[in-house]
Amino acid sequence: MSQLPAFPASDPSANTNLAQNLLVVRSIQDWTQFALAASAHVSRATIAQIEAGLGDPRLSTLQQLASALGIIPALLVLSKRDLLALARVFENPKLPSLSKSPTSTMSYLVGSGFSRNRLEAARIGAELVQQAGLIDPAHSVGAALASSRLPGPVIFVLAQMAYHIAHGGGAAVLPRLATASAPS
Q1: Which domain holds residue 22?
Q2: Helices 154-166, 137-147: inter-axial angle, 10-degree rounding
Q3: In terms of pLDDT, which residue wins out, 90 or 184?
Q4: Mean per-residue pLDDT, 91-105
Q5: Is 36 helix (H, G, I), strand (E, B) or coil?
Q6: Which of 29-33, 108-112, 131-135, 178-182 has maximum average pLDDT?
Q7: Is residue 147 in some structural domain?
Q8: How many Å apart are CA 123 and CA 151, to the nearest integer?
Q9: Segment 47-54 long-range contacts (CB within 8 Å, at least 24 positions apart)
Q10: What is the CATH number of the domain that holds 31?
Q11: Which of 76, 97, 128 corresponds to the end of one domain?
Q12: Longest dimension (CA), the chain
C-alpha cells in the first residue's frame, strides 16, 4: 500500500514552482542571493525576480543557477505532481517511519502558505534525513524540496532520488517516469 498522497488536481505555474524550488535549494544550502548570483554569473536582481515568481529566465540562466548550486536544472522546475511521480518511481515499502510530530509540524508549516514557513519545513526535512544517516548534500536537497511540498515519509524517497540523479544514476530513472506520472 502506497504511503504517497494522491496526485493534485492542478499545479501552480511553472514560474511559481521555479520560485519556490530555487528559494528552498538556495536556503537549504545557506546561499545568499548575492553569493549565488556571483557564483552563477547572473545578477542578484535576476535571482530576486525568479524567487518572487516574476522572472521568466532563459534555459541558460537555469543551467548557470543549477550548476552553481550543484544540482541538475530539472530539480529547479519540479512541480508537486512531478515530485509525486518521482516518488512513485523510487517508492520503497520499507521507508523509515516519521513520528507524527515532525510530519504534523511540516504539514502545518507548508499549509500556512508563507514562504518562511515552507523554508522551515524544508530545513526540518533536511535535518531528518541527515539524522537518518543520509548525509550527502543531494539527500538534503531532495528532502528539502519534498518537505516544502509533501511533508512525510516521502522525503526519504526523494532524498534518495536526488542522490541518484546527482551521482549519475538519473539515466535509469527517466524511462520509468512516463508510467509513474500517470494518475492511478
Answers
A1: 14-76
A2: 140
A3: 90
A4: 65
A5: helix
A6: 29-33
A7: yes
A8: 11
A9: 47/22, 50/15, 50/18, 50/19, 50/22, 51/19, 51/22, 51/23, 51/26, 52/19, 53/13, 53/15, 53/16, 53/18, 53/19, 54/15
A10: 1.10.260.40
A11: 76
A12: 47
pLDDT score, position 51 = 94
pLDDT, greater one: 70 or 99: 70
What contacts 11, CB < 8 A, 6 or more positions away? 17, 79, 80, 81
Same domain, 172 and 95: yes
DSSP for 91-146, written as a single string: --TTPPP--HHHHHHHHHHHHT--HHHHHHHHHHHHHHHHHTT--SHHHHHHHHHH
0.85 surpassed by pTM: no
